[in-house]
Amino acid sequence: MGAMLHLWLESSKNFILLFVLFIVYVASAQDNYYTKYSFVVDPQDEATVYKLVDDFYSKNKPEDVFVRFFENHFKSQGNNATHSLVFLGTQEVTVAQAVNSL
User: Fold this and answer.
1) What is the rounded CA–CA span in Å between residue 3 and residue 52?
2) Is the CATH code 3.40.50 the one for domain 31-102?
3) What is d(CA 86, CA 54) in angstroms, rounded to the nearest whole number?
4) In this predicted structure, which of 6-10, 38-42, 91-95 has the lowest mean pLDDT?
5) Which of 29, 64, 76, 79 is at 20 to 30 A from 22, Cα to Cα?
6) Would you state the pLDDT for residue 83?
């Protein structure tokens, strides 16, 4: 009986730990905001646009904001954009403020 009680207590501790970690993860996920700009880039201009974006944002990146440049691999009806520029930040440093400060 003592071994079963010990096993039950250990599994309860593990469950509580996992539950607390899950709550922390969910709570921290609520702090991010993003802005996405989608546009069309002709295939022959992709390297030039990538270099321009990389050069500009590597020197002028807003503090505490992640800047990512993506090629869109999937298209849907009404969405012909080939690339997206995404800004991700926290509530304290809103993405709109960071973008407007450039």
Assistant:
1) 65
2) no
3) 13
4) 6-10
5) 64
6) 92
Residues 23-39 as b or e (16 or more Cβ within 10 Å = b): eeeeeeeeeeeeeeeee
Enter the tokens of residue 85: 């520029």
Looking at every residue in the chain, the average pLDDT score rounds to 76
**Does residue 41 contact residue 85 with C-beta atoms inside 8 Å?**
no
H or E segment and range at residue 36: strand 32-39
Q: What pLDDT, on the 0 to 100 scale, is given for residue 51?
A: 93
What is the distance between the alpha carbons of residues 37 and 70, in angstroms, rounded to a whole number? 10
Enumerate the domain spans of the chain.
Answer: 1-30, 31-102
Please report, to the nearest 10 degrees, the dihedral formed by the alpha carbons of residues 37, 42, 43, 47 taken in order. Answer: -60
Contacts of 61 (CB under 8 A, 6+ apart): 67
Which residue is it, tokens 């400060």? 101
Alpha helices in 2-71 (DSSP H): 2-29, 46-60
